Automatic annotation (TrEMBL):
Organism: Aquimarina intermedia
Descriptive protein name: Glutaminase
NCBIfam families xrefs: Gln_ase, PRK00971.1-2
Keyword DNA damage: no
SUPFAM superfamilies: beta-lactamase/transpeptidase-like (SSF56601)
Enzyme class: hydrolase
EC number of the protein: 3.5.1.2
Gene: glsA
Amino acid sequence: MDYQSILDTIESEIEKRPVSGVVASYIPELAKVDPTKFGMNLFCINSGHYSFGASDQRFSIQSISKVFSLTMAMNLLGDELFERVDVEPSGDPFNSLVQLEYEQGIPRNPFINAGALIVADVLVSKLKNPKEEFLNFVKKITDSPSINVNYTVYESERKNSYRNASLLNLMKSFGNVYNDIDTILDFYTFQCSVEMSCKELSQAFMIYANGGKKLADQTKILSPERVKRVNAIMQTCGFYDEAGEFSFRVGLPGKSGVGGGITSVHPGQYTVSVWSPPLNPKGNSELGMYALERLTTLTGFSIF
Ligand code: DON
């Protein structure tokens, strides 16, 4: 497959495409990002990296971090985790509170904010230094020791965490939150404020395309059974109330973040990451989704 010429085609299509989405502003610092930035990187299991645009520039990974925290929590807690968070698509916005009320504080899945906050609670309980260990895990699977948190973005979200605090309070009232709310919020905001480039995200996600092992040295990070589960949850829940649309248009598991990033996985084949800050009304990168739809259309190849 000539991935580079397919990416070149996508680049020329992207340049001409009008955008109606807007950059996230409920985290004020994210609103300062240049909306015209675009980067794409594809990491093929057999033939390495292909890219264009700002594919080496780091940006705020936001909810993409939920895939890493879920991986760590599954390894620490096993199936017990799924007694506290379900694996059903929510069909509601990522920060919605409504289902929690009638579902007794059990979030629908680990990728909506409510579910990711339960995963954060698990990591706070199980790890001695959750922030440091989370960052070390991301550095390890990426082979990139300079990955770090943007503390300006972190402060900016932390001062505006009203909705996430509500989710935690509501779940605590049902007995599904064990630690202090500020401690969990602090850790969760930290994980969301990690910055990575498209190339680094493709590198990190290779464990989900390569049966749970790093590609470079085949170090085992998680079992093939857990890889299946993480990919399944990405497929059904990775894009909140747009998960069906993403499956329909792209046909790959993936995860988005309000920083404008999306990373997708074709198990056994490649990982692919895109970054374009303007978001559609569901909070997913508008051009990023388009680029991935073009990728699976032009290659004639998806998991379906
Ligand atoms: O908790 C939040 O609202 C953000 N830190 C992350 C949300 C997010 O990225 C949703 N994704 N599309």
